[in-house]
Write a structure and sequence with these properties.
By secondary structure, this protein is mainly α. It has helices spanning about 60-65, 75-95, 100-110, 135-155, 160-170, 180-195, and strands spanning about 5-10, 10-15, 115-120, 125-130. Helices cover about 45% and strands about 10% of the residues.
């Protein structure tokens, strides 16, 4: 290999990824610093030690970590890395785009911008609409994307990698078929009612 460029899974380049949402640029660790460039989404970093340290975690690794949920999958990171690798291959075959760009677009589209919180005083509880911080938008988007993929692959013929690829592509296109986009619209609709 002549060039020394770091590519994810030795295939996908980080260089041409664009972040079109300026508010999330500090929280999507794609290419802002050299240490975000990784060959594998498995850095064994301690991103939970300090409060906002997880925003420094490479974004593909955060997706990988979010896949390791529901007791039987806890701690199986190599399995999660394999799922992400297969999903990225499928995304490239279906869209001809850089899967990293599709992932970034999906996260930007799937994070709710407004939410309703409960404000209780003297026994009466009412909802109040609030803006969502950028870090929570990223956290919720990743959670919705992986939850949607997990629920659609459960008890179906499709593998989790295929479902994750479909979910990411639909979310990147803002398609209503995406679980994450449905949840985001539902949250924003409730918030709008409680402004």
């Amino acid at each position: 290999m002549a060039s020394s460029e770091v590519k994810l899974f030795d295939k996908w380049t980080f260089e041409d990824v664009t972040l079109r949402d300026i508010s999330l640029q500090d929280y999507l660790a794609v290419k802002q610093k050299f240490r975000y460039f990784t060959y594998l989404p498995h850095t064994a970093g301690r991103y939970n030690v300090k409060r906002f340290r997880k925003s420094q975690c490479p974004i593909v690794e955060r997706l990988t970590n979010s896949l390791m949920m529901h007791g039987r999958n806890n701690g199986k990171k190599i399995m999660a890395v394999r799922i992400v690798k297969h999903a990225f291959e499928i995304i490239h075959l279906l869209t001809e785009k850089n899967p990293l760009q599709v992932l970034v677009d999906a996260i930007i589209n799937a994070g709710p911008r407004e939410d309703a919180t409960r404000i209780g005083s003297a026994g009466t509880v009412r909802r109040q609409a609030v803006d969502v911080s950028p870090l929570r938008r990223v956290n919720q988007a990743i959670y919705f994307l992986t939850t949607g993929a997990r629920s659609s692959s459960f008890r179906s013929m499709k593998t989790i990698a295929e479902c994750l690829a479909d979910e990411l592509i639909n979310a990147a296109n803002e398609s209503a078929n995406s679980y994450a986009i449905k949840k985001k619209d539902e949250i924003e609709r409730v918030a709008k009612m409680n402004r």
